[in-house]
Write a structure and sequence with these properties.
single chain, 258 residues, alpha+beta, 5 helices, 8 strands, globular
């Protein structure tokens, strides 16, 4: 006796009827290189300011709602990156500001992208230095958020949380923009505790124009593991491995410092 397996139904589309208000303080990590580096190219503060103005003229134009924001908030909306992300197709503009509701989630996301890069690097040689990141927060208040962790979208969790295939999320975000969605809340695939991330589509939802730098985090790669530890006075630390993210680590012969 044969059985027929029903095909998986398509995820429900975005609907304005599912909008809800959202008010939260979100976390994001950036490499400490975010600090102005043009000061090494200029003789004084006046020359540096002029250089920054010249650099600004050749950058892609910001969406109107992102103008006047601190560059840590505005920059994600400026560029259409060559590589896709969960809710953005390759080269698609405007961009998306990704952030997390908990700092540990932002740390896990950062560790994933670093380990992914290592796993795909031919001739990989582990870094011998600690990489410093700044953890900052920004308040967000959105009137039109769609929450993929709530009904009816939660029933399609497998589509939203696929670790490698972002097609369903990208299609959802494209349609969500069509109904003026400001943000999408979804569960993190990389955070072992499965806490929430937010994909901010509309920079007008920022409730402040400037972020607050809250913590410094150090990322050290050693013996096939990425350890992230917060700077004093915090003693928080997290350890991540390739296998927990479904990645293939460097071979034993290559996993040695250069």
């Amino acid at each position: 006796m044969s059985t027929t397996i029903a095909p998986r139904s398509d995820p429900p589309p975005p609907s304005a009827e599912r909008f809800r208000a959202y008010d939260a303080t979100l976390w994001r990590l950036v490499e400490a290189q975010h600090r102005i580096s043009t000061n090494r190219l200029a003789a004084n503060a006046e020359d540096q300011a002029l250089l920054e103005e010249l650099v600004e003229t050749v950058k892609p134009v910001l969406p109107p709602a992102a103008r006047g924001l601190h560059y840590l908030l505005a920059t994600p909306f400026r560029y259409g990156h060559k590589k896709p992300s969960r809710f953005r197709r390759a080269g698609e503009r405007p961009g998306i500001f990704y952030a997390a509701e908990h700092v540990a989630t932002a740390v896990a996301e950062t560790a994933y992208w670093r380990l992914l890069f290592f796993s795909r690097s031919p001739g990989f040689r582990p870094p011998t230095t600690v990489v410093e990141h700044s953890a900052f927060t920004v308040p967000v208040r959105a009137a039109r958020l769609l929450d993929l962790s709530e009904p009816p979208y939660a029933a399609s969790a497998a589509a939203w949380t696929d670790p490698d295939d972002y097609a369903a999320c990208q299609a959802f975000a494209g349609a969500a923009r069509g109904i003026a969605t400001q943000a999408i809340r979804y569960l993190s695939v990389r955070d072992p505790a499965r806490r929430a991330n937010v994909a901010l589509l509309d920079p007008a939802a920022f409730a402040a124009a400037t972020p607050m730098i809250r913590q410094t985090w150090h990322f050290r790669y050693e013996d096939g593991r990425m350890t992230a530890y917060a700077a004093f006075p915090s003693d928080e630390r997290h350890v991540f491995g390739f296998e927990q993210f479904g990645l293939t680590g460097p071979s034993a012969g290559r996993d040695r410092p250069a």
